[in-house]
Design a protein that fits this description.
The chain contains 8 helices and 12 strands. It is of the alpha/beta class and about 260 residues long. The protein has one domain: Spore Coat Polysaccharide Biosynthesis Protein SpsA, Chain A. The chain has an 8-stranded mixed beta sheet with strand order 2-1-3-9-5-10-8-7, with helices on both faces. The chain has a two-stranded antiparallel ribbon with strand order 4-11. It has a two-stranded antiparallel ribbon with strand order 6-12. The two termini are about 20 Å apart.
């Protein structure tokens, strides 16, 4: 079975226990990657030309994912799965990992869903009981994905300068719609962040990343800057629809 790396802060024992329980139930062995602690990150490590100031948690998360990519490249494996420690795993996780993943032409496969509508190729490939579709545009989140060695090398290069959150580098507009990475989507998704699914009495693992982002000052935009940004967004959206609609359609990726 392909290696699985779980990113986990040493002080987050509750999240580690959550992941260990799920993985044991699925019959999957995983290696826990000790995450970089945002409390110890220095903002000076960020790129001076970053589009916006990253929070310390965002900076730490980039560095943590880089540890997982390096672990793959230090191993003989062709591909690996990277998980954050707040995901819920779907049914048949072990069976899905045991399928024939190498050699399918991807560099990244997004295994999770954020439950938004995303652009997916109309024609998909069977992958066990699920299907693989080419991603045509962004689908944010980096809590569960499969990456091959080419993708790992690309991501290490792309994150050498800390300019943007790791999920934007992996699955953002520039990466996917811009074509800098070959990314697919597993549908239905086999993972989702627990806070999106938590029922009564269940842990929700409220996102520390979101709280940290909210507490990080943002540069205020003037009215002309805001209007210009909105105009560019509308034009970019029209261009995207014109380019993607012939071969792709927007759909919500479900979780099973």
């Amino acid at each position: 079975m392909i290696p699985v790396y779980v990113i986990n802060l040493a002080r987050s024992s509750d999240r580690r226990a959550w992941m260990e329980r799920q993985l044991a139930e699925a019959g999957v062995a995983a290696r826990f990657v000790v995450a970089v602690d945002g409390r110890r990150c220095r903002r000076e490590t960020q790129a001076a030309n970053a589009p916006r100031r990253l929070s310390k948690a965002e900076t730490a998360l980039i560095l943590s994912h880089r540890k997982a990519w390096r672990a793959l490249l230090a191993s003989p494996a062709a591909v690996a799965v990277v998980l954050e420690d707040d995901v819920r795993l779907g049914r048949g996780f072990a069976e899905t990992l045991a399928l024939d993943w190498p050699g399918r032409g991807y560099e990244l496969v997004k295994l999770e869903t954020m439950f938004d509508k995303v652009w997916l190729s109309r024609a998909g490939q069977a992958m066990g009981a699920r299907r693989l579709h080419r991603l045509g545009a962004e689908h944010h989140g980096a809590a569960a994905y499969l990456i091959n060695r080419v993708g790992a090398k690309k991501m290490l290069g792309a994150t050498r300068s800390l300019r943007e959150p790791v999920d934007i580098t992996l699955f953002g507009r520039a990466a996917i719609f811009g074509g800098s990475v070959e990314a697919w989507q597993l549908a239905p998704a086999i993972a989702a962040q627990q806070h999106l699914l938590a029922g009564p009495g269940e842990p929700d693992f409220a996102s520390a990343l979101q709280a940290d982002r909210a507490a990080t000052p943002r540069d205020a935009l003037s009215l002309p800057q805001r209007l210009g940004r909105e105009a560019r967004r509308v034009v970019a959206q029209a261009v995207r629809v014109a380019r993607l609609a012939p071969t792709m359609r927007r759909r919500r990726v479900e979780f099973e």
